[in-house]
Amino acid sequence: MKNIICLAIETSCDETSMSLIRNGEEELATIVLSQIDIHANYGGVVPEIASRSHVENITLVLDELLKKTSITLDDVDIIGIANAPGLIGSLLVGLQVAKTLSWLLNKPLIPVHHIAGHIYAANLEQRLEFPLIALVVSGGHTELIYMDKDYSFKQIGNTLDDAIGECYDKVAKILGLPYPGGPLIDALASTGKDTYQLPLPLNDNTYNFSFSGIKSAVLNLVNQEKMKNNLIIKENIATSFQNRVLEIIVKKTIHAINEYKVRNLVVAGGVAANKELRRRLSEYTANNNIKLFIPSIKYCTDNAAMVGSAAYYAYLRNKTADLSLDALSVKSLYQE
Ligand code: KG4
Ligand code: ZN
After folding, report:
1. pLDDT by residue (tens digit) across 181-206?
2. Pocket test for ligand 1, best of 239, 271, 279 (most atoms within 8 A of CB)
3. CB atoms < 10 A from the CB of 66, how many?
């Protein structure tokens, strides 16, 4: 079969990213321009600033991308675009560029759901095997997904309130740490002790999650300690918090692997960068003869390479769009 080169675009939040991916697996070039330094000044992503930065940067990112390889726009076969879900203003910038390139080059436009992108990040390093369970843990999502084949997604569990990454970021904020706090909690937790009493989040037999309770528990704990003039040992709070949330995430993931009788596990999304989560799932899968697909750290957080991989498999299933394609801030991966 002919080689298919995808030019992929990801602008759903605060990264302006473009990538060239061959046949869903081979990364030819990627640029990720992060706006984190700008948003850190405000303690979180400011949507208006994010979309303006995408506008300023996106053509520069395209120029840089093309400089990185001998591939030219004439070699591109499909245009992959993460058009949902995300910040609407940010998504629209990437979508407009994708539509323009699709029209200009007369190449198919392939919409990719952001979560499908995260799952296919792992495919860039190791071809996915099916059936599989995907654990998607990011700033906006906490889901367990069953896939029996490429580009076929069945949700089996979801968060009922906050996403896990959002919860990490809020706990970090309570501890006075800068945005994004997830990696900082991860680092602190590795040096602390599990000394604080915090509740296990939604410890039941479903595949659903709930993290708002433990977030409030951390807030109450910190306020109480302050009122008593007690020293707050941040690393111990980080360890206690992380142990509780990971205990439930790992337990429910193992439950899904067993109940759906799969031998393959994908872990995806920004929180898949978490060292302790990686350690626990690596240990479990190694001891139980389960194949673990977990992207390198650079592919865990938002990037266009993952979109380029997913777009290839969407294209093989004829999931193309015309120029009326819209961006959606909220969209289910399961409604087509
Ligand atoms: O996938 P992503 O880049 O964006 C979304 O689609 O949401 O995920 C970003 C999230 C942030 O909440 C960030 O704090 C969290 O992933 N994160 C981590 C770690 N690295 C990033 N959370 C815990 N431990 C980490 N090492
Ligand atoms: Zn993401």
Report:
1. 999 999 999 999 999 999 999 999 99
2. 271
3. 18
